[in-house]
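Researcher: I'd like a structural prediction for the single chain below. Treat it as a standalone chain; there are no partners to consider.
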Amino acid sequence: MGKVKQVKFGTESIGKILPGINKISEVVGSTMGTFGRDVIMDNDNDMPPTISNDGVTIAQQIFFKDKWENIGAKLCHYASGLMNAQVGDGTSTVTVIFAELVKEGYKLLQADYSPIYIREGMNLALKEIEKILPNYIKQITDKDRKKIIKQIAKLSSGNEEIAQELTDLFDKLSEDSIITIEDSIDGNIGSEVLDGIRVDGALTANNFFTNANYSKGEVDNPLILTINDKVNDFKEMANLLGYAVKNQKSVAIFAKDFSIEVLKNLLINRDKMGLIVLPIKIKAPSEKIEDILNDIAHSTKSKLFDNKTNNRISNLEPNQIADSFGHADKIVSTKTESSIFTNSDFAILRIEELKEQLENTENLFEKDNLKERIANLGAGIGVIKIGAYSEVEQRELRYKAEDAIHAVKSAIKNGYTITTSNLFIKINNDLKCNNDNREIQAGFNIIKKVLLKPLKNVVNNANGKFDLIENDIINEREDIGWNANTFTMCNLFNEGIIDPADASKKALQNAISVARTVLCGGAIIATDDENNDKK
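Model: Treating it as a single chain, here is the predicted structure.
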Protein backbone atom coordinates (compact mmCIF):
# COMPACT_ATOMS: atom_id res chain seq x y z
CA MET A 1 0.00 0.00 0.00
CA GLY A 2 1.27 3.47 -0.87
CA LYS A 3 1.73 6.35 1.53
CA VAL A 4 -1.25 8.29 2.84
CA LYS A 5 -1.66 11.69 1.15
CA GLN A 6 -3.33 14.98 1.98
CA VAL A 7 -5.01 17.03 -0.74
CA LYS A 8 -5.66 20.78 -0.82
CA PHE A 9 -7.70 22.32 -3.62
CA GLY A 10 -7.65 25.53 -5.65
CA THR A 11 -6.72 28.82 -4.05
CA GLU A 12 -6.37 27.23 -0.60
CA SER A 13 -3.59 24.96 -1.88
CA ILE A 14 -1.54 27.92 -3.14
CA GLY A 15 -1.98 29.68 0.19
CA LYS A 16 -0.50 26.63 1.92
CA ILE A 17 2.72 26.61 -0.13
CA LEU A 18 3.17 30.38 -0.43
CA PRO A 19 4.92 30.90 2.97
CA GLY A 20 7.73 28.53 1.89
CA ILE A 21 8.15 30.39 -1.41
CA ASN A 22 8.20 33.78 0.36
CA LYS A 23 10.80 32.68 2.91
CA ILE A 24 13.23 31.54 0.23
CA SER A 25 12.63 34.73 -1.74
CA GLU A 26 13.40 36.84 1.34
CA VAL A 27 16.71 35.04 1.93
CA VAL A 28 17.77 35.14 -1.72
CA GLY A 29 16.62 38.76 -2.12
CA SER A 30 18.89 39.85 0.73
CA THR A 31 21.93 38.91 -1.40
CA MET A 32 21.11 41.08 -4.42
CA GLY A 33 23.14 44.09 -5.54
CA THR A 34 26.38 45.68 -4.40
CA PHE A 35 25.20 45.85 -0.80
CA GLY A 36 23.65 42.38 -0.74
CA ARG A 37 24.89 40.09 2.02
CA ASP A 38 26.30 36.59 1.84
CA VAL A 39 24.39 33.68 3.39
CA ILE A 40 26.10 31.14 5.66
CA MET A 41 24.76 27.60 5.20
CA ASP A 42 25.39 24.60 7.39
CA ASN A 43 26.42 21.36 5.70
CA ASP A 44 25.03 17.94 6.60
CA ASN A 45 28.52 16.42 6.52
CA ASP A 46 31.69 17.42 8.36
CA MET A 47 32.56 20.07 5.78
CA PRO A 48 32.81 23.70 6.90
CA PRO A 49 29.72 25.87 6.29
CA THR A 50 29.14 27.12 2.74
CA ILE A 51 29.14 30.90 2.29
CA SER A 52 27.51 32.20 -0.87
CA ASN A 53 25.36 34.90 -2.45
CA ASP A 54 24.41 32.65 -5.38
CA GLY A 55 20.64 32.29 -5.71
CA VAL A 56 20.45 28.65 -6.76
CA THR A 57 23.04 27.53 -4.20
CA ILE A 58 21.08 29.20 -1.40
CA ALA A 59 17.60 28.19 -2.58
CA GLN A 60 18.52 24.53 -2.93
CA GLN A 61 19.89 24.42 0.62
CA ILE A 62 16.55 25.37 2.19
CA PHE A 63 13.95 22.80 3.27
CA PHE A 64 11.08 23.17 5.71
CA LYS A 65 9.53 20.85 8.26
CA ASP A 66 6.02 21.86 7.18
CA LYS A 67 5.20 19.67 4.17
CA TRP A 68 3.26 22.40 2.35
CA GLU A 69 5.94 25.03 2.80
CA ASN A 70 8.46 22.45 1.61
CA ILE A 71 6.54 22.00 -1.65
CA GLY A 72 6.87 25.78 -2.10
CA ALA A 73 10.59 25.47 -1.42
CA LYS A 74 10.95 22.71 -4.02
CA LEU A 75 9.26 24.91 -6.63
CA CYS A 76 11.89 27.59 -5.90
CA HIS A 77 14.57 24.91 -6.24
CA TYR A 78 13.15 23.99 -9.62
CA ALA A 79 12.86 27.54 -10.95
CA SER A 80 16.39 28.50 -9.89
CA GLY A 81 17.82 25.17 -11.06
CA LEU A 82 16.21 25.62 -14.48
CA MET A 83 17.81 29.05 -14.79
CA ASN A 84 21.17 27.71 -13.64
CA ALA A 85 21.08 24.91 -16.23
CA GLN A 86 20.17 27.28 -19.08
CA VAL A 87 22.27 30.36 -18.32
CA GLY A 88 24.29 29.74 -15.15
CA ASP A 89 23.48 33.29 -14.03
CA GLY A 90 20.42 35.26 -12.87
CA THR A 91 19.27 32.60 -10.39
CA SER A 92 18.57 35.16 -7.65
CA THR A 93 16.46 37.21 -10.07
CA VAL A 94 14.38 34.23 -11.20
CA THR A 95 13.75 33.19 -7.58
CA VAL A 96 12.43 36.57 -6.38
CA ILE A 97 10.39 37.12 -9.56
CA PHE A 98 8.80 33.67 -9.27
CA ALA A 99 7.89 34.32 -5.63
CA GLU A 100 6.41 37.72 -6.44
CA LEU A 101 4.35 36.29 -9.31
CA VAL A 102 2.82 33.61 -7.09
CA LYS A 103 2.17 36.11 -4.28
CA GLU A 104 0.43 38.63 -6.56
CA GLY A 105 -1.43 35.93 -8.47
CA TYR A 106 -2.67 34.46 -5.19
CA LYS A 107 -4.20 37.84 -4.28
CA LEU A 108 -6.15 37.87 -7.55
CA LEU A 109 -7.35 34.30 -7.03
CA GLN A 110 -8.60 35.27 -3.57
CA ALA A 111 -10.59 38.03 -5.28
CA ASP A 112 -12.20 35.38 -7.57
CA TYR A 113 -10.27 36.30 -10.71
CA SER A 114 -10.07 33.46 -13.25
CA PRO A 115 -6.69 31.68 -13.25
CA ILE A 116 -7.08 31.14 -16.99
CA TYR A 117 -7.44 34.88 -17.66
CA ILE A 118 -4.59 35.65 -15.24
CA ARG A 119 -2.38 33.26 -17.20
CA GLU A 120 -3.49 34.81 -20.50
CA GLY A 121 -2.56 38.26 -19.22
CA MET A 122 0.86 37.04 -18.06
CA ASN A 123 1.48 35.41 -21.43
CA LEU A 124 0.46 38.59 -23.23
CA ALA A 125 2.90 40.64 -21.15
CA LEU A 126 5.73 38.18 -21.78
CA LYS A 127 5.18 38.35 -25.56
CA GLU A 128 5.32 42.15 -25.43
CA ILE A 129 8.53 42.05 -23.37
CA GLU A 130 10.12 39.67 -25.87
CA LYS A 131 9.37 42.25 -28.59
CA ILE A 132 10.78 45.15 -26.52
CA LEU A 133 13.91 43.45 -25.16
CA PRO A 134 15.99 43.38 -28.41
CA ASN A 135 15.96 47.20 -28.39
CA TYR A 136 18.12 47.13 -25.26
CA ILE A 137 20.59 44.39 -26.29
CA LYS A 138 24.13 45.04 -27.54
CA GLN A 139 26.41 42.46 -29.14
CA ILE A 140 30.07 41.98 -28.24
CA THR A 141 32.34 43.09 -31.08
CA ASP A 142 36.00 42.26 -31.72
CA LYS A 143 36.90 45.84 -30.82
CA ASP A 144 35.36 45.80 -27.33
CA ARG A 145 35.55 42.04 -26.63
CA LYS A 146 38.18 42.09 -23.86
CA LYS A 147 36.67 45.11 -22.15
CA ILE A 148 33.12 43.71 -22.09
CA ILE A 149 34.22 40.24 -21.01
CA LYS A 150 36.08 41.70 -18.05
CA GLN A 151 33.13 43.89 -17.08
CA ILE A 152 30.69 40.98 -17.24
CA ALA A 153 33.05 38.70 -15.30
CA LYS A 154 33.74 41.33 -12.65
CA LEU A 155 30.08 42.14 -12.02
CA SER A 156 29.16 38.44 -11.92
CA SER A 157 32.01 37.32 -9.66
CA GLY A 158 32.56 40.51 -7.67
CA ASN A 159 36.28 39.75 -7.88
CA GLU A 160 38.85 41.70 -9.93
CA GLU A 161 41.40 38.86 -10.08
CA ILE A 162 38.89 36.28 -11.28
CA ALA A 163 37.63 38.76 -13.91
CA GLN A 164 41.15 39.38 -15.21
CA GLU A 165 42.07 35.69 -15.40
CA LEU A 166 38.85 34.88 -17.27
CA THR A 167 39.48 37.76 -19.66
CA ASP A 168 42.94 36.35 -20.39
CA LEU A 169 41.52 32.85 -20.95
CA PHE A 170 38.76 33.98 -23.31
CA ASP A 171 41.38 35.97 -25.24
CA LYS A 172 43.18 32.68 -25.94
CA LEU A 173 40.13 30.44 -26.35
CA SER A 174 36.86 30.44 -28.29
CA GLU A 175 33.52 30.90 -26.56
CA ASP A 176 32.82 27.17 -27.09
CA SER A 177 35.98 26.09 -25.27
CA ILE A 178 35.64 24.48 -21.88
CA ILE A 179 36.95 26.31 -18.84
CA THR A 180 37.32 24.25 -15.69
CA ILE A 181 37.96 25.36 -12.12
CA GLU A 182 40.65 23.87 -9.90
CA ASP A 183 42.01 24.60 -6.44
CA SER A 184 45.26 26.54 -6.50
CA ILE A 185 48.23 24.94 -4.76
CA ASP A 186 49.95 28.21 -3.86
CA GLY A 187 46.82 29.99 -2.60
CA ASN A 188 46.73 32.48 -5.47
CA ILE A 189 44.26 32.98 -8.32
CA GLY A 190 45.69 32.12 -11.74
CA SER A 191 44.92 30.45 -15.05
CA GLU A 192 46.43 28.38 -17.86
CA VAL A 193 45.46 26.74 -21.13
CA LEU A 194 46.11 23.00 -21.42
CA ASP A 195 45.99 20.60 -24.36
CA GLY A 196 42.68 18.83 -24.40
CA ILE A 197 39.49 17.82 -26.16
CA ARG A 198 36.02 19.27 -25.68
CA VAL A 199 33.30 16.60 -25.65
CA ASP A 200 29.55 17.14 -25.97
CA GLY A 201 28.94 14.56 -23.29
CA ALA A 202 27.76 14.61 -19.68
CA LEU A 203 27.68 12.39 -16.63
CA THR A 204 24.49 10.34 -16.62
CA ALA A 205 23.68 10.89 -12.92
CA ASN A 206 24.79 12.95 -9.92
CA ASN A 207 25.68 9.71 -8.11
CA PHE A 208 28.83 9.52 -10.21
CA PHE A 209 30.20 12.89 -9.11
CA THR A 210 33.58 12.44 -7.46
CA ASN A 211 33.20 15.94 -6.05
CA ALA A 212 29.56 16.59 -5.12
CA ASN A 213 30.32 20.10 -3.82
CA TYR A 214 31.34 21.21 -7.32
CA SER A 215 28.98 18.89 -9.25
CA LYS A 216 31.61 17.12 -11.33
CA GLY A 217 33.35 13.82 -11.86
CA GLU A 218 37.13 14.02 -12.14
CA VAL A 219 39.65 11.19 -12.61
CA ASP A 220 43.42 11.27 -13.19
CA ASN A 221 45.14 8.93 -15.68
CA PRO A 222 41.97 6.92 -16.37
CA LEU A 223 41.38 4.04 -18.74
CA ILE A 224 38.98 5.04 -21.52
CA LEU A 225 36.29 2.98 -23.24
CA THR A 226 34.37 4.17 -26.32
CA ILE A 227 31.14 2.35 -27.22
CA ASN A 228 28.99 3.28 -30.22
CA ASP A 229 25.86 1.79 -28.64
CA LYS A 230 23.64 2.00 -25.62
CA VAL A 231 25.32 -0.02 -22.87
CA ASN A 232 22.70 -2.55 -21.73
CA ASP A 233 24.65 -5.60 -20.53
CA PHE A 234 26.77 -5.16 -17.42
CA LYS A 235 27.99 -8.77 -17.42
CA GLU A 236 29.46 -8.25 -20.88
CA MET A 237 31.76 -5.60 -19.39
CA ALA A 238 32.89 -7.67 -16.40
CA ASN A 239 36.33 -8.59 -17.80
CA LEU A 240 37.07 -5.00 -18.85
CA LEU A 241 36.12 -3.59 -15.45
CA GLY A 242 37.95 -6.43 -13.71
CA TYR A 243 41.14 -5.39 -15.51
CA ALA A 244 40.69 -1.85 -14.18
CA VAL A 245 40.20 -3.08 -10.61
CA LYS A 246 43.26 -5.31 -10.84
CA ASN A 247 45.39 -2.40 -12.08
CA GLN A 248 43.83 0.09 -9.62
CA LYS A 249 42.65 2.36 -12.42
CA SER A 250 39.55 4.47 -12.80
CA VAL A 251 37.52 4.21 -16.00
CA ALA A 252 35.72 6.73 -18.22
CA ILE A 253 33.13 5.23 -20.56
CA PHE A 254 31.92 7.31 -23.51
CA ALA A 255 28.75 5.85 -25.05
CA LYS A 256 25.44 6.65 -26.72
CA ASP A 257 23.58 5.87 -23.51
CA PHE A 258 23.45 3.57 -20.48
CA SER A 259 20.62 1.43 -19.13
CA ILE A 260 19.42 1.97 -15.56
CA GLU A 261 20.55 -1.58 -14.71
CA VAL A 262 24.12 -0.90 -15.90
CA LEU A 263 24.32 2.34 -13.90
CA LYS A 264 23.09 0.59 -10.75
CA ASN A 265 25.74 -2.11 -11.12
CA LEU A 266 28.48 0.47 -11.70
CA LEU A 267 27.54 2.12 -8.39
CA ILE A 268 27.48 -1.25 -6.62
CA ASN A 269 30.97 -2.01 -7.96
CA ARG A 270 32.20 1.38 -6.80
CA ASP A 271 30.94 0.75 -3.27
CA LYS A 272 32.12 -2.87 -3.07
CA MET A 273 35.39 -2.76 -5.00
CA GLY A 274 36.34 0.91 -5.05
CA LEU A 275 36.12 1.10 -8.86
CA ILE A 276 35.49 4.70 -9.91
CA VAL A 277 33.70 4.88 -13.25
CA LEU A 278 32.48 7.97 -15.12
CA PRO A 279 29.64 6.89 -17.47
CA ILE A 280 29.49 9.75 -19.98
CA LYS A 281 26.57 9.95 -22.40
CA ILE A 282 27.26 11.77 -25.68
CA LYS A 283 24.80 14.66 -25.98
CA ALA A 284 24.58 15.41 -29.68
CA PRO A 285 22.25 14.86 -32.65
CA SER A 286 22.13 11.17 -33.53
CA GLU A 287 23.91 11.70 -36.85
CA LYS A 288 26.93 13.21 -35.04
CA ILE A 289 27.37 10.75 -32.16
CA GLU A 290 29.39 8.17 -34.09
CA ASP A 291 31.76 10.88 -35.37
CA ILE A 292 32.32 12.18 -31.84
CA LEU A 293 33.01 8.69 -30.49
CA ASN A 294 35.34 8.01 -33.42
CA ASP A 295 37.30 11.18 -32.67
CA ILE A 296 37.61 10.25 -28.98
CA ALA A 297 38.73 6.73 -29.89
CA HIS A 298 41.39 7.96 -32.34
CA SER A 299 42.64 10.70 -30.01
CA THR A 300 42.97 8.47 -26.94
CA LYS A 301 43.95 5.28 -28.82
CA SER A 302 40.92 3.35 -27.53
CA LYS A 303 39.06 0.65 -29.47
CA LEU A 304 35.61 1.76 -30.64
CA PHE A 305 33.16 -1.02 -29.78
CA ASP A 306 30.11 -1.27 -32.04
CA ASN A 307 27.49 -4.05 -32.17
CA LYS A 308 26.82 -3.24 -35.84
CA THR A 309 30.33 -4.49 -36.67
CA ASN A 310 32.58 -7.29 -35.45
CA ASN A 311 34.05 -4.92 -32.86
CA ARG A 312 31.76 -6.20 -30.10
CA ILE A 313 32.69 -6.42 -26.45
CA SER A 314 31.34 -9.98 -26.45
CA ASN A 315 33.95 -10.96 -29.08
CA LEU A 316 36.85 -9.69 -26.97
CA GLU A 317 39.59 -12.21 -26.12
CA PRO A 318 41.37 -11.97 -22.72
CA ASN A 319 44.67 -11.02 -24.37
CA GLN A 320 42.95 -8.11 -26.17
CA ILE A 321 41.57 -6.40 -23.04
CA ALA A 322 44.54 -4.17 -22.23
CA ASP A 323 44.72 -2.81 -25.79
CA SER A 324 41.00 -1.99 -25.81
CA PHE A 325 41.46 0.92 -23.44
CA GLY A 326 42.49 4.43 -24.36
CA HIS A 327 44.44 6.77 -22.08
CA ALA A 328 44.43 10.44 -21.02
CA ASP A 329 46.05 12.58 -18.37
CA LYS A 330 42.72 13.53 -16.82
CA ILE A 331 38.99 13.61 -17.53
CA VAL A 332 36.53 16.10 -16.03
CA SER A 333 32.81 15.65 -16.61
CA THR A 334 29.84 17.73 -15.42
CA LYS A 335 26.09 17.66 -16.04
CA THR A 336 26.58 19.57 -19.31
CA GLU A 337 30.00 18.87 -20.84
CA SER A 338 33.23 16.88 -20.54
CA SER A 339 36.93 17.52 -21.04
CA ILE A 340 39.68 15.07 -21.97
CA PHE A 341 43.08 16.42 -20.98
CA THR A 342 45.70 14.91 -23.25
CA ASN A 343 48.81 16.12 -25.06
CA SER A 344 49.29 12.91 -27.04
CA ASP A 345 50.27 12.92 -30.69
CA PHE A 346 47.16 10.85 -31.49
CA ALA A 347 44.87 13.89 -31.13
CA ILE A 348 47.16 15.91 -33.42
CA LEU A 349 47.13 13.13 -36.01
CA ARG A 350 43.34 12.95 -35.85
CA ILE A 351 43.08 16.69 -36.49
CA GLU A 352 45.32 16.32 -39.54
CA GLU A 353 43.12 13.50 -40.85
CA LEU A 354 39.98 15.62 -40.45
CA LYS A 355 41.63 18.61 -42.14
CA GLU A 356 42.44 16.42 -45.11
CA GLN A 357 38.79 15.27 -45.26
CA LEU A 358 37.72 18.93 -45.10
CA GLU A 359 39.81 19.79 -48.14
CA ASN A 360 38.33 16.90 -50.11
CA THR A 361 34.62 17.45 -49.51
CA GLU A 362 32.21 19.81 -51.26
CA ASN A 363 29.23 19.01 -49.05
CA LEU A 364 28.42 22.12 -46.98
CA PHE A 365 26.90 20.17 -44.06
CA GLU A 366 29.92 17.88 -43.95
CA LYS A 367 32.27 20.89 -44.08
CA ASP A 368 30.55 22.48 -41.07
CA ASN A 369 30.58 19.18 -39.20
CA LEU A 370 34.31 18.67 -39.85
CA LYS A 371 35.13 22.23 -38.77
CA GLU A 372 33.25 21.67 -35.52
CA ARG A 373 35.05 18.37 -34.88
CA ILE A 374 38.46 19.95 -35.54
CA ALA A 375 37.62 22.82 -33.19
CA ASN A 376 36.60 20.42 -30.40
CA LEU A 377 39.78 18.38 -30.79
CA GLY A 378 42.15 21.34 -30.92
CA ALA A 379 40.44 24.06 -28.92
CA GLY A 380 42.41 23.54 -25.73
CA ILE A 381 40.94 23.66 -22.24
CA GLY A 382 41.14 26.67 -19.97
CA VAL A 383 41.80 26.19 -16.28
CA ILE A 384 41.21 28.89 -13.69
CA LYS A 385 42.90 28.13 -10.39
CA ILE A 386 41.27 29.44 -7.24
CA GLY A 387 43.25 30.01 -4.06
CA ALA A 388 42.29 31.57 -0.73
CA TYR A 389 43.37 31.72 2.91
CA SER A 390 40.63 29.30 4.04
CA GLU A 391 38.62 26.43 2.56
CA VAL A 392 35.38 28.35 3.22
CA GLU A 393 36.58 31.36 1.21
CA GLN A 394 37.97 29.14 -1.53
CA ARG A 395 34.63 27.40 -2.03
CA GLU A 396 32.84 30.75 -2.21
CA LEU A 397 35.30 32.02 -4.84
CA ARG A 398 34.85 28.86 -6.89
CA TYR A 399 31.09 29.43 -7.02
CA LYS A 400 31.69 33.05 -8.08
CA ALA A 401 34.13 31.96 -10.80
CA GLU A 402 31.62 29.42 -12.11
CA ASP A 403 28.91 32.11 -12.30
CA ALA A 404 31.28 34.41 -14.16
CA ILE A 405 32.23 31.75 -16.73
CA HIS A 406 28.56 31.10 -17.55
CA ALA A 407 27.76 34.81 -17.67
CA VAL A 408 30.58 35.59 -20.10
CA LYS A 409 29.73 32.67 -22.40
CA SER A 410 26.10 33.77 -22.44
CA ALA A 411 27.03 37.39 -23.25
CA ILE A 412 29.36 36.35 -26.07
CA LYS A 413 26.63 34.19 -27.59
CA ASN A 414 23.51 36.33 -27.11
CA GLY A 415 24.65 39.83 -26.19
CA TYR A 416 24.45 41.99 -23.08
CA THR A 417 22.29 44.73 -21.55
CA ILE A 418 22.40 47.19 -18.69
CA THR A 419 21.93 45.36 -15.39
CA THR A 420 18.70 43.40 -15.11
CA SER A 421 17.35 45.48 -12.22
CA ASN A 422 17.69 48.74 -14.22
CA LEU A 423 16.54 47.12 -17.47
CA PHE A 424 13.29 45.86 -15.96
CA ILE A 425 12.34 49.40 -14.85
CA LYS A 426 12.74 50.68 -18.40
CA ILE A 427 10.85 47.73 -19.90
CA ASN A 428 8.06 48.22 -17.35
CA ASN A 429 7.69 51.81 -18.52
CA ASP A 430 7.46 50.64 -22.16
CA LEU A 431 4.91 47.91 -21.42
CA LYS A 432 1.30 48.66 -22.38
CA CYS A 433 -1.73 46.33 -22.30
CA ASN A 434 -4.13 46.63 -25.24
CA ASN A 435 -6.67 44.08 -24.01
CA ASP A 436 -10.01 45.29 -22.62
CA ASN A 437 -10.72 42.23 -20.46
CA ARG A 438 -10.39 43.28 -16.80
CA GLU A 439 -9.04 39.92 -15.62
CA ILE A 440 -6.53 39.64 -18.48
CA GLN A 441 -5.38 43.17 -17.65
CA ALA A 442 -4.88 42.08 -14.03
CA GLY A 443 -2.62 39.22 -15.14
CA PHE A 444 -0.73 41.61 -17.42
CA ASN A 445 -0.27 44.09 -14.56
CA ILE A 446 1.18 41.39 -12.32
CA ILE A 447 4.14 41.24 -14.72
CA LYS A 448 4.49 45.04 -14.62
CA LYS A 449 4.55 44.91 -10.84
CA VAL A 450 7.12 42.10 -10.53
CA LEU A 451 9.47 43.87 -12.96
CA LEU A 452 10.10 46.35 -10.13
CA LYS A 453 11.09 43.65 -7.62
CA PRO A 454 14.79 43.11 -8.49
CA LEU A 455 15.63 46.82 -8.22
CA LYS A 456 13.56 47.10 -5.04
CA ASN A 457 15.73 44.39 -3.48
CA VAL A 458 18.95 46.04 -4.68
CA VAL A 459 17.86 49.46 -3.36
CA ASN A 460 16.53 48.10 -0.06
CA ASN A 461 19.79 46.25 0.57
CA ALA A 462 21.57 49.59 0.05
CA ASN A 463 19.07 51.47 2.29
CA GLY A 464 18.08 53.68 -0.65
CA LYS A 465 14.74 55.21 -1.64
CA PHE A 466 13.19 53.16 -4.42
CA ASP A 467 10.51 55.61 -5.64
CA LEU A 468 13.01 58.40 -6.30
CA ILE A 469 15.44 56.07 -8.07
CA GLU A 470 12.67 54.51 -10.18
CA ASN A 471 11.59 57.93 -11.45
CA ASP A 472 15.16 58.89 -12.31
CA ILE A 473 15.64 55.70 -14.35
CA ILE A 474 12.36 56.17 -16.24
CA ASN A 475 13.17 59.76 -17.16
CA GLU A 476 16.60 58.97 -18.60
CA ARG A 477 17.56 57.44 -21.96
CA GLU A 478 18.00 53.68 -22.31
CA ASP A 479 21.70 53.49 -21.33
CA ILE A 480 21.36 55.61 -18.16
CA GLY A 481 20.55 53.88 -14.88
CA TRP A 482 21.24 53.70 -11.17
CA ASN A 483 24.75 52.80 -10.00
CA ALA A 484 24.42 51.09 -6.61
CA ASN A 485 28.14 51.53 -5.97
CA THR A 486 28.00 55.33 -6.05
CA PHE A 487 24.27 56.01 -5.47
CA THR A 488 24.27 58.08 -8.69
CA MET A 489 22.77 57.92 -12.16
CA CYS A 490 25.30 57.15 -14.88
CA ASN A 491 25.86 55.61 -18.30
CA LEU A 492 25.78 51.94 -17.26
CA PHE A 493 27.45 50.71 -20.45
CA ASN A 494 30.38 53.09 -19.97
CA GLU A 495 30.75 52.06 -16.32
CA GLY A 496 30.57 48.34 -17.10
CA ILE A 497 27.41 47.78 -15.04
CA ILE A 498 26.04 45.17 -17.42
CA ASP A 499 24.53 41.67 -17.52
CA PRO A 500 24.25 38.98 -20.18
CA ALA A 501 20.97 39.49 -22.04
CA ASP A 502 19.83 35.96 -21.25
CA ALA A 503 19.97 36.73 -17.53
CA SER A 504 16.97 39.01 -18.05
CA LYS A 505 15.11 37.13 -20.75
CA LYS A 506 15.40 33.63 -19.30
CA ALA A 507 14.68 34.83 -15.75
CA LEU A 508 11.31 36.16 -16.87
CA GLN A 509 10.51 33.20 -19.10
CA ASN A 510 11.36 30.61 -16.45
CA ALA A 511 9.70 32.44 -13.55
CA ILE A 512 6.49 33.02 -15.53
CA SER A 513 6.46 29.45 -16.83
CA VAL A 514 6.61 27.92 -13.34
CA ALA A 515 4.35 30.53 -11.69
CA ARG A 516 1.51 30.32 -14.20
CA THR A 517 1.53 26.52 -13.83
CA VAL A 518 1.21 26.89 -10.05
CA LEU A 519 -1.57 29.49 -10.29
CA CYS A 520 -3.61 27.35 -12.69
CA GLY A 521 -3.24 24.18 -10.63
CA GLY A 522 -6.45 22.61 -9.32
CA ALA A 523 -4.95 20.82 -6.34
CA ILE A 524 -1.71 20.10 -4.47
CA ILE A 525 -1.00 16.70 -2.90
CA ALA A 526 1.40 16.17 0.01
CA THR A 527 2.44 13.14 2.02
CA ASP A 528 0.52 12.86 5.32
CA ASP A 529 3.48 12.14 7.61
CA GLU A 530 1.37 11.92 10.77
CA ASN A 531 -0.92 9.17 9.46
CA ASN A 532 1.94 7.34 7.73
CA ASP A 533 3.80 7.14 11.06
CA LYS A 534 0.78 5.40 12.60
CA LYS A 535 0.65 2.71 9.91
